[in-house]
Amino acid sequence: xxxxxxxxxxxxxxxxxxxxxxxxxxxxxxxxxxxxxxxxxxxxxxxxxxxxxxxxxxxxxxxxxxxxxxxxxxxxxxxxxxxxxxxxxxxxxxxxxxxxxxxxxxxxxxxxxxxxxxxxxxxxxxxxxxxxxxxxxxxxxxxxxxxxxxxxxxxxxxxxxxxxxxxxxxxxxxxxxxxxxxxxxxxxxxxxxxxxxxxxxxxxxxxx
Length: 208
What we know:
By secondary structure, the protein is an alpha+beta fold. It has helices at 13-20, 24-36, 56-76, 87-91, 101-113, 128-136, 165-176, 193-201, and strands at 11-12, 40-45, 48-53, 93-95, 98-100, 117-120, 123-126, 149-153, 160-163, 180-182, 189-191. GO terms for molecular function: cadmium ion sensor activity; DNA binding; DNA-binding transcription factor activity; lead ion binding.
């Protein structure tokens, strides 16, 4: 159920129960525990209650837990071929409100390499060059929000991509300009010609 909310959407308990393959009563009990643990937030609209991941920090924690689970599965299935995630998810997907997968890692590496962002430990900031780039690309980012960004471990690529307010703003712009579009697989994205042009301006050739 938590994975189904990893793209930042809010879903009702009935839909989450169907995703998990459990009864609505069982789902409600689990969801209440997640709300009590401050993993999820909930609000009522009419007779429905909608659940979503509480914040960006929790989303990063979930991504790390998925990565840990994948590593554990690899160890327990030694000697057998392990099922790989769908190629579309591996190439490009949402992780809460930011970009993940191969495309997210390409973006992160380019921003760091061009010194548009500076990393200090697990957190980072947008540089003056980065703020100028935001203006040029019409990315609506408020530098007053701290920290600007942080590293989030990518569960398919096993290296970090960028999360946080700045990374969220970049994905918002890519969606607005139709640089990426939803794929039929939940959370998966496909890059468009406009998106390729965006990455070209960063000096990145997208290989898929």
